[in-house]
Specification:
Blueprint (H helix, E strand, L loop, with lengths): L2 E4 L4 E12 L4 E8 L5 E8 L1
Antiparallel strand pairs: 1-2, 2-3, 3-4
This protein binds zinc ion.
Length: 48
């Protein structure tokens, strides 16, 4: 289970449908939606 900080809930939440993505700057991130409210949640996990 992946966790990220939801801007709307203002706390760490479970990231639903989490997908690992690599950004242009070479950083790896998890992208998904907040399990509680459905807002997009984005979490940087480190260098790719
Ligand atoms: Zn939320």
């Amino acid at each position: 289970m992946a966790e990220g900080r939801c801007m709307k809930c203002k706390k760490n939440v479970e990231i639903k449908n989490a997908q690992e993505v690599v950004m242009k700057n070479g950083m790896k991130a998890l992208k998904g939606v907040c399990a509680a409210c459905g807002t997009k949640v984005f979490r940087i996990v480190g260098k790719a």
